[in-house]
Amino acid sequence: MKLLYTSIILICIACNFINADFSHQVTLDQNSNFRLSWDIVNNDFIVFRVEANVKTWIGIGWYCTGCTGSKMAMMNADFTIGQFNSSGFLSVHDMVNGQYEPGQPVDDTTRGGTYDILSSSGYQIDGYSVMIFSKKLNTGDTRDHSIDPSQPFNMLWAYGPVQNNNLDEHPRTQAGQVTIDLLGNENKVIVVDSGNNLLRWHGSFMLIAFGVLMPMAIFTARYLKSYTWWFPLHMFLQTFAFIFMIVAFGLVIKHLDGLPLKSGHGIIGLILVILTFIAMILGGVSHLLWKKDRKTTPLFPDIIHHYQGRLVFLLSVAVIITGIIKYNSVPISNPFVICFSILIGLYISIVVYLEVVEKLNPNSNSIPLDNMK
Ligand SMILES: *[C@@H]1O[C@H](CO)[C@@H](O)[C@H](O)[C@H]1NC(C)=O
Fold first, then answer.
1. Could you identify the atom of ligand 1 that is nearest to the CA of residue 88?
2. Which residues form a coiled coil (predicted)?
């Protein structure tokens, strides 16, 4: 009987039984319509169908029964990933992660394991990828996690960068972590997406700190010095920029469980945070050393503070753009990148305009910029 069932399943898969009705299905992601369907056969095999409206690799992963992921979601998970070639043909990878190669799944066979996908089928066309594969619930491979259908199934899902079938790292928004009841008819999917939420807050706070408050603070210091209130305003804006930055930095440390040293964005972001600290200190020292009767602005710390502040702002543009690209899947046509670039373009045009006006009309009724504090 067991053999019969197995043969039927394997034959069905071999004959591209792709639109078969599975007895269980959940949608894991609305954006990509990422769906997981499955059947458990004879309490011995499981057949999964993974499909999404994307043209990239697609994959799922799961933890050992009763284990949850560490803070790094992919640690210690067992992965099955479908990769397609340019003609749309599928190859299914049986992969492993965790202590062997954190961050990047590798084939079980390269880590002393075996290839345990019993049968597979699938295809890819524009806007749709599907893979079906069957596996024993317990493969006996030390690099696999056996699946106990009576237990909560803690799993990961992901798909790759847009229109890219190399097994390149997925953008953060294109992955998630869910718990599924494999035997339940109505699946309540608990989306454990807090990591993404932390990153959203991180990006939003940093954008306000460096994209809004800091440019206003620099503008105040450069162009509004004829008003006595420029300094309190400058301090007020920078203090809030600093608070937003610290909160955002804390969020990313919590998300990564450490300093952001693994990516270009993380490293230049860390340098930015350090330079911002230095700018704050130089600003404070400038204020303490300022004397009412001084004739010129000293190079240290004032002028250095002026230029270092601008450097911090320029670096922040690079950090924000790399951050948006890292987080989103469509770098070039990304609306956030385009809108942010327009904003920076506007800032720069305003500054160029004011500088030119100042040069052309040095005796206009404004007070010369550099003679002030
Ligand atoms: C994709 O894989 C299929 C099956 O292995 C093969 O016949 C086909 O030539 C491959 N296409 C490309 C572009 O490599």
1. 1
2. none
